[in-house]
């Protein structure tokens, strides 16, 4: 079985790279056919310089969808072969513009004819296939511009991991895990404060007995995440002590915990969910926004030194 048949669509990038290498190799044969001393990778840059004179490297890079560094290297090669020249711009001396040399201008008509022949041959090639690759590439580029391959893979990975994550209610044997997960992230960024130790050492007394809840995330037999709901008043609970093990971060576990906490807050009849955090924790703030929280200035002064942002999620409007 062919390697790519065995790998399937997971090998798309590698197969496209192989196809690119084949086409580039055969393109070199085309230049030899026309007795043109020219490398295929130069063509996009040379084409723009020939048809749109006066552009600088940044313009060309944007025009052909390549990096600035890649275009700069091609320009250096073209200069070395005396096909283009680099000059300071008339309107902006800080920007160099690229133009054809006499040698490059003399080569351009031959390249134009070669391009016309290649276009005709390529259209014949595409007509031999059931699926028009040129159109398919355009569709693929559009689809990837809407959602990257990485984000698509992440969504599938998160769904798979999510189905394996078990959200559990707190039990006394989980107190060491609850404390460990929170101490771990607090010490990484801040310092552990007295209110932390009260809640983490005695969660039954400071969280559960006043009407709160503690949720834990279990994955592959390990407790890898935790959060707590602290009863503030009849209408409000606080989302606190949210923590995910570094080894399990990036798997969407924090989002699963957050969704479970919101559902639990609704079940408790709460009308408002409140939290305190620090803007230094950018991924956490991003998570809270994704869950629907918004910044508020209506909170009471925080007992924590590290708090510099307060957020809330309105679960149901309080009728006045």
Description:
52% of the residues lie in helices and 17% in strands. Helix 3 (43-51) crosses helix 4 and helix 9 (175-189) packs antiparallel against helix 10. The protein has 2 domains: 34-146, Winged helix-like DNA-binding domain superfamily/Winged helix DNA-binding domain (Arc Repressor Mutant, subunit A); 156-314, Gcn5-related N-acetyltransferase (GNAT) (Aminopeptidase). The model has no long low-confidence stretch (mean pLDDT 89). The protein is α+β, with helices and mostly antiparallel strands. The protein has a 7-stranded mixed β-sheet with strand order 3-4-5-6-7-9-8.
Please outline the helices and strands.
Layout: H1 3-7, H2 12-33, H3 43-51, H4 57-64, H5 68-80, E1 84-88, E2 96-100, H6 102-127, H7 133-146, H8 149-164, E3 166-169, H9 175-189, H10 194-201, H11 203-208, E4 213-219, E5 222-231, E6 236-244, H12 253-267, E7 272-277, H13 282-291, E8 294-296, E9 309-314
- Radius of gyration (Å): 30 Å
Main sheet overview = 7 strands, mixed
- The fraction of residues in strands falls at 15-25%
Spatial sequence of strands, sheet with the most strands: 3-4-5-6-7-9-8
Quick one: CATH superfamily of the largest domain? Gcn5-related N-acetyltransferase (GNAT)
CATH C-level class of the largest domain is: Alpha Beta
Give helix and strand order, one letter per element, not per position.
Answer: HHHHHEEHHHEHHHEEEHEHEE
Please tell me the total number of domains: 2
